Structure formats: C-alpha cells, structure tokens
Amino acid sequence: MHTDLVAALDIGGTKIAGALVDREGRILARAQRPTPAREDGDTVMAAVGAVIGDLAASPLWERAGAVGIGSAGPVDASAGTVSPVNVPGWRDYPLVAQVRDAAGGLPVALIGDGVAITAAEHWQGAARGHDNALCMVVSTGVGGGLVLGGRLHPGPTGNAGHIGHISVDLDGDPCPCGARGCVERIASGPNIARRALENGWRPGPDGDTSAAAVAAAARAGDPVAVASFERAARALAAGIAATATLVEIDIAVIGGGVGKAGEVLFTPLRKALTEFATLSFVRRLAVVPARTGTDAGLVGAAAAALMGRTDAAVAGV
Ligand SMILES: [Zn+2]
C-alpha cells in the first residue's frame, strides 16, 4: 500500500486533536478528545491513544506512513519527551515512544506548538514563499517559531523561536518562567487585560474582561484600552526587531486570539517597529496577521511528519 498520508496530533492543555492529512495539507479524517490535563500522565496518554484509535479505525489509516506531533511545550525533540506547562502529569514524558507504540510502530516527529504553527503558516499561510520568517502565536501565552533559509528551524530540542520568553524590559515584572520583562509578560492576552484593569479600564455590562473586550474598547476609543494595546505592541516590536537583527527575517506573522485584534494591535506595532528595527537590513520587515485558522496546529504537525521522512534533524527521533 502506498503511504501517501500522515497522521497529525495537536496536543494542548484543553484538547487533543488528530487528523489524517495528505501531501497538499488537506485534512481527510479527524478525531478529538478533551485533554484530562489535571489527571496523571497515563490517563492523559490514554486520551491520546483514543484519538489515534479513532484515526486507525478509518479505512484511510493504512495509507499513513508517519505521525507528526505538535505539543504544548516545553518539548525536547532530541529526547522525544514533553513537559507541557498546563499538563502537570507529563514531565519529561516519553511521548514519542508512547505514540510510536500506539501507532503500530510508525515513525514519529515531535515539534513544539509554536513551531507547528510556523510550519503551517510557511506551508499554507502568510509566510508562504518567504525563506526567512518569524511566526508568532499571541494568545494566553506567546509562542513562536522560525523559518530560516527556506526551511523550518525547530532547533535541537524543537523550541527555537520561543519569542515569548525573551526579555524586552530588563527591570520588568517577574515572569512565571523565572526571568523578568518577557514579551509574554507584557503582550499576552491576560497581561493586556490585567494592565487595562490596573489602570482603570472597566468591562461593559457583560463583565467580559478578556483581551478581546479590551480590544473592542480600544476600537471605541477608550484611552486606557488603547494604551494597553500600545504597550503590548511595543513589547512585540522589540522582540521582533531583535529577532530580525539576529537572523535577518523579512516577515513576522502574528496569529492567536490577540493577533485577531486587528488594527488596534497592528497600527501601534508597525509604528513601534520603525523605532526598534532601524538598521538597513531590517527596515523593510513586514508584520502581518496569520492566515491559517484553527487547524494550524494539525497542519503544522503534518508538515513535520512529511519533512521527518526525509530530514532526521526535523524528526528528532
Ligand atoms: Zn518568561
């Protein structure tokens, strides 16, 4: 049988999604389970196994030649293990070996979720055709990944491009990661909302204090909401400019819930980039919204599996 498909798994703190994907990135079969994130590691793995079992029940399964996993991080692709912050039952958990067993011995490629979304954006989204790109997810946290020289650059452990935890404020607030003034500590959705509330913004009658509600207030002209987005935009711009200066990217793609805020984010972000990205070789840097949607994690995991069949460095196993 010709193995022209791959199986993809997108493992996060709330759901485990699976799919069978063809070489054009089309999803031909799907499965999904909630993540029992507060349970022990074996229980979480049982949910992953159930997703694989659902996919294996498809008549298309016999055409799958590899499995790609995009997992909440940190991951260690070189060891085949994951330690997702939001899944405490998994610490240095041997996910690659477990999935290989559950999938009948198929080869398994593991990447972090930020790298997976980068793979999806490079394959099918806003970074398509760009050989040097930074792709970011700005939502509850801030993650990212890099395309360098036309290829996904996951790094030795699969975490390269994790822009959320580079510091852009040396004396800034402590970050849960242990550092200070990280991009995530300033620009994530919860931190945008927290700062707006601390500075006197109040939600409407529905009590919605999400970053999306702050974005709506900013669009309506609320100065505190505008200022909170401007601060997030400056943090993102500083991180993007640093990345561009280090490795010469020509585009930064921003996805995730905060990335959907539109011009209340992108207008101050582009303005701040002109302040931070000043050298000749980074001045033409473009910053654009992501184009892939809710399937980005699955599509990116599939891309990793397809690359892993010809590139052991990406396979990480
Ligand atoms: Zn941090």
TrEMBL record:
Family per similarity comment: Belongs to the ROK (NagC/XylR) family.
Protein name (record): ROK family transcriptional regulator
Originating species: Streptomyces variabilis
